[in-house]
Amino acid sequence: MSAPRFDPAVLDGTRITQRRILVATLTLLLTGPAVLLMADLHWRVDAIDGLKIFHLILFAILFSLVAFGAVQAVIGFFCRAGKGDPNRIMASLTPEDEARPVDAPTAIVMPIFNEDTSRIMEGLRVIYRSLEATGQLEAFDFFILSDTTNPNRWIEEESAWVALTRQLGARGRIFYRKRRVNLNKKAGNLADFCRRWGRRYRYMVVLDADSVMSGDAILKLVRLMERNPGAGIIQTVPRLVNGETVFARLQQFASRLYGPIFAAGLNFWQQGEANYWGHNAIIRVAPFIDQCSLPELPGVEPFGGRILSHDYVEAALMRRAGWSVWLAVGLEGSYEECPGNLIDFAKRDRRWLQGNLQHSWLVTARGLHAANRLHLALGILAYLASPLWLMFLLVSSVIAWRYAATGLTPLPVDSFARYLRLDFQSQALLLFAATMGLLFLPKVLALIDLRRIPGEAQRFGGWCRVIGSVITETLVFTLMAPVLMLFHSKFIVLTLAGRGVAWVAQRRGADGDPEWREAILTHAGHTMVGLGWGWFALWVNPAFAAWMAPILLGMMSSIPISLVTGQLAAGQFVRRLRLFVTPEESAEPPELTRLARNLEACRRHTPPLPELAADYGLMQAVLDPYVNAVHLALLRERDLTPVAEGRFGPLREKLLGEGPSALASRDKLALLLDADSMAILHRELWSRPADRLAAWWRTSIRAYNVIAPAPQTALYR
Q1: CA 174, CA 128: separation in Å to the nearest integer?
Q2: What CATH number labels 101-340?
Q3: Domain boundaries in the chain?
Q4: pLDDT, average across residues 143-151
C-alpha cells in the first residue's frame, strides 16, 4: 500500500489562516518589544518630538522586515525537521504517478534578448539530451523566442539554431521565432507565443537564457500538473550555479546554504498562493492565456505604461481566477546563473526596482487575494527598504549630533527600562544585539540544519570550510549592503523623477573582469559619501562613529571591493582554497558537466578576424549562401513597395560600397528584416567587380575562401 499523499484540492482554509496568523503573531511579538525599547530610549533623552517619532516609525518598519525574515527562517527550520511539512506540492506525487508516462503536450520556451548565442544553444542542448535520456521526449517541443535587436546576434541565433536542430536530429521539435517589434519586452514575447502557438499545448515550461533544468525535473513538473488539475503555476526554487567570480560564488553559496530553510518557511504560509518568479516554472497554458493578459497602467513610464515585473502580476491574476500557484520546495534539477560583479547586479536591480514600484498601482486592485497583495507590497518594500534605511541612518546622525551639541544626559524619568534595571547604554546595546541576533539567526539555523543531514557538510567542502565561508560571506556582504542601499536609493529617486530604464541585455556569469574606469566612476560617489559621513560621525562622537563604522567602511571601500569580488582571477583563487563550495560543485550534476564541456569546445573555435568581428553576423547573412538561405526562409514575405525600394536601394549600395561601418545599427536591422534586400545583397556581392566593393567586403571574401565560418554550437553530445 502506498503512503498517504498530500492533496492540495482539499486544503483546509482555516489551517492556512492559522499558519499565517502564527507568522504574523511571531513577527509582532519580536517587533513590539524592540519598538518599545527604541521609544523608551527616545523618551529618556529630552522630550519626544517630530524627528524622534519619524525615527521610531522608520525603525518599526525596518525591524518588522528583519523579524519577518527571521520568523520565516525559524519556521522553515522546523518544517525541515523530522518528516518535514506535509503540505508541500511535491508530496502530492505517488510512486504510481512517477512511473506513469508523460503524454501531455508541453512547450519549453526560452525568451532571449541579445544573449550569448553559444550559452543559449548549449543550454538547450543539455536540456534536450537530458529529456531524451528519460525516454519521454515525444511530449515536448522547444521554442527559442528572440527579441534580439543586435543584427549580428540575430544571425548567430539563426545559424546556431539550424546547426543545433541538425546535430540533434530535432527538426520539427526545436523552433526559432524572431519578433519584428519588441512590444512589451519579455511579457509581450511570451504573450506573442501564447497567441500563435499556445493552444496547441497543455503546459509550458518557461526558462531564462541562463536556465538549465534536468529532464527528471521537467517530467516531475508535468506530473505535478497532471496530478493537481487545480494548479495554474508551479514555481521551482532554482539553484545558482557556474559562478566564477568571488561575487557570484558568494551569492550561490549563500543561496544554497540558507535558501532551503527560507523556501520551506515561504511554503509554510504561502501554500497555494505562492509567487511566480518568471522562469524555471511550469504554467497551465489555457488559463494563462484566458486570465493573465497584463493591463496597461495609467500614465507613462516609469510608473505607468507597460508592466515590467510581469511575473508577480501574472501569479496574482492566475490566483484571482481560482487557480493555485505553488512553490515546488524540494524539487532537484533546476538551475540558473547570476551576475558576476556588483555593478552588473545593481544594473539588474535597477530594472527590477522600477517594475516592482509599478506594482503600487495594483496593491489595491479589485479582486486580488490578500496573499497576492502582500506579495506585491513585499516586492515594493524589498527596494523601498533601502531609502528607508538611509533615512533612518541620516535621522540617527542628526539625533546624535543634537544630543552631543546640547550636552543632554538621560533623564531620571519613569521608563520601561526600570523594569529591566538597565541604564541607557545597556538598553541601547540590548536593542543592537537583538537586531543583530535576528539578522544572523537564519545563518545559525542553516548550519544546524546542515549538521542534521548526514554527509551534507562534506558536499559544502567540510565543516572548517563551511564556517570559514559563512564568516567571509557575512563580512563581505556586510560591506556591500550599504553600497546597495545607496544604489537602490538613487534608483528610486531617478524613478520618482520620471527617468525610466532601458531594457538592456543582462551580462550573465563572468563575461570578463569589471573595468577600472566603470568601477571608479560608479563608486566614486559612494566613496565620497562614506568619507564625508565618517568625518561628521567622528566630529559628533567617536562612539557614534564606531557604531556606524561597518556601514561607512563599506561605502569608503566600495571601489576595491567591487573590483576584487568581480575579478575572475580572485574567484579562481578562492575556488582553489575550496571556499564557497556548493554541492553542485562537489558532485556536479551531469547537465552542468555537459554544459561546461560544450561551452569550452565552443570557445576553442577559431574566432573571426578582428576587423570583421563587429559585423560578423551581417557578413554571414550576406556572404554565405547557406546562412543567407536560412535567413530568407525565416523572413516573412511581403511586396517591395516603391517607397520601401526608395529607402532600401541607397542603403544596400552604401553597405556594399562603403562597408557596414557606414550604416547605423537600425539601418542594418532594417536591411536584415527585408527579404528582397537580403537576396539582392547576396547576389550583388558575388557578382560585382572587386573594385566596386568596400575593402571590408574584399577582406570578408578572402577570409571566407580560406576558412569556413566559425560554428556557433559545439559538435558534442
Answers
A1: 9
A2: 3.90.550.10
A3: 101-340, 610-706
A4: 93
